[in-house]
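Intended use. Records such as the Sec1 family domain containing 2 entry shown here are meant for training and evaluating sequence-to-structure methods. They are not intended to support clinical decisions.
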Amino acid sequence: MLTTDDFTHFPLQMWEKVLSKVKKAVVFMDDKCAEALHWSGGAALLLEAGARNLKEFSSFEACAANEPKAVFVVSTLLKGRTIDIIKDIISLSHFQYCVVITTVAHSVHLLANNVTTEMESNPVFEQFEEKLCEWMGNMNYTAEVMHVPVVFAPVSQQLLLTPMFAHLFPLLSPDLESINAKRPEKKRFGSLVDVDVHSLPVELQLEIKSLAAVLNSVFEATGTREESFAVGPMSRIIAGELANHPQAKNRRKTAPNKASIIFVDRTMDLTGAVGHHGDNLVEKILTVLEPLPGHVTDVQVDMLELTSLQRTPDSQTTLAPGCLAQTQSTAAQSLWEAMLTNKHKEGVMEVRRQLVETASKEKLPIKMSMGRVTPEQLCSYVQLFRSSWGSLENHCGVLQLGLATAQTLRHPSLPRWDACLAFERLLLQALGDSDFPAVLRQLLPLMKPCGGEDSAASGSRSRDDECGPDELILLLTYLYSLADEAQPTDQDTEEEELEKLERELIGALTLVITLEPQLSPLLQKLTGCANPEELTTERAHTAVEEMFETLRGLSHTRDHLKQLRSVYTASDGVHQATYRPFLQQILEEVFHPDRLECPDIEHMSGGLTDLLKTGFSMFMKVSRPHPSDNPLLFLFLVGGVTPSELRLIKEIVSAHKPGTQVLVLSTRLLRPTDIPEMLFTTQRLLPDIGF
């Protein structure tokens, strides 16, 4: 029987195809493919397969005369900038043999070249092979161009990420305005639910078709016939593309295995993605530690504790950082799974237990201590390994995860996590008692500019646990996503009051941002400025105004749903008001013992058969496919999944249907600040696909 292991092994099977080409070659790889490789074994895989070197995919790279073979691995179409970079590298080198591997299917290349007919051969790749020989300077040299979907990063036994689609995000109301602006008035869409794939910009169409082709290749390789379901406008489009994929139709006729896949838009539940209620160690690690350069998911772990180097301004650039992806060690993988899917306290305890156990095995002089786990305690255990290089090398994976935990627990910004959590709880209670402007007004006193050197300045921010601009933006997103849950009042009065309050908030937040001594990555993307010197008050004010335009539409993302319209449970006088995760509601519907049909989980694989069943159901009982019909369930979260949601999924499946195997697929593993970045700064309609 098919298991989730068959799918988590798929990425490595695809990398095997790449490895078969790299012997005696210099490999050039772009960031997205490098991130997928990072979670599948890293550069060691290529070097062990005989690669001579691994270089960045950049026009500034080249090879020496004694390096005649190159392999290019790219996540983009073979068009535009991608072609320019390949040509630049070849012209500066002396290659006689070039292999180009793209993760984008040939069918998508045809569409990008305005060819709509299906072809058995690969004319786009064949033409590009000729170009490669021209650039190498001899038509008798060897050139190969192929498609290999090295797209998935197996982050855990429960989770596959797609770095190539990390910036794919469901559309929002401003996107609908942009789409409608280019259409005749009579053909404009009333809501995002009405938008079809052909009305989207070409770049986004190609990205969605590329994702459908990737998913089809997974099901093809595993002999799987999927039943697709969708919740949300973008999910409907993706599921529809998968259902209509030319190769998918043939595969579904003969595939021996069955599975269900539910696509869910992240915008169905933004509250859970920006909130601080997750109680998960990895969520905090991803939030406070710096991202690994060129990566979306992994972070930098400071390795200084494992050396005898002194901490100086230059020590950080002297020593290569550690990371969370530990593919070489079974013990480290086990620890990572525990950190990812357990509660914060359990995760921290497991880190200590593994460090103590590892030190004891190596007969290092460890001093046992019980009670609360402290960062100093974890660091003292890690430092024991400095004296034994053999032990350090054998257990480097566990030590990196231990250091990541210690550095997170002592990070100066961590108190702000607890401050945000406390305020979110207050806001949840207030929503049930007051109108929206009254609840929103509670954010105004938090909007304090940085105190600078004079930390005693009146009305300024000085303590570590006080909210900075990033936290304020998260709280605004959290609250606006729940705006419809507030107590209704006179609509005209409320709108007038809200408009006046928003002007105050925009002014206050603009002041906070302009007085920041350093701009966080989120603020840099929001304002388009790399440092405070570039940032003018006018520029900050414009960015904040645009942000509020998007915020106003967040409470309407579930308006089209019939049943799962709320993620809020009001207080009943005995129990406090609570947030009820959207994913929890979906899974409870899926695993309901009566197999109830939820109108919001739309079946997308049926085509004409499904339409006929819908017609017959008016006058007779018709059995439609249900997500729980199959022993294997995929959840594809379009726009990202949080670590705490992974734990939630695991707990619900164990409680409701223990025999079911569930694998989560998603575009990225979220930290809270990722959501405002994608809501307010990402070009959702114009993804970068290599044009």
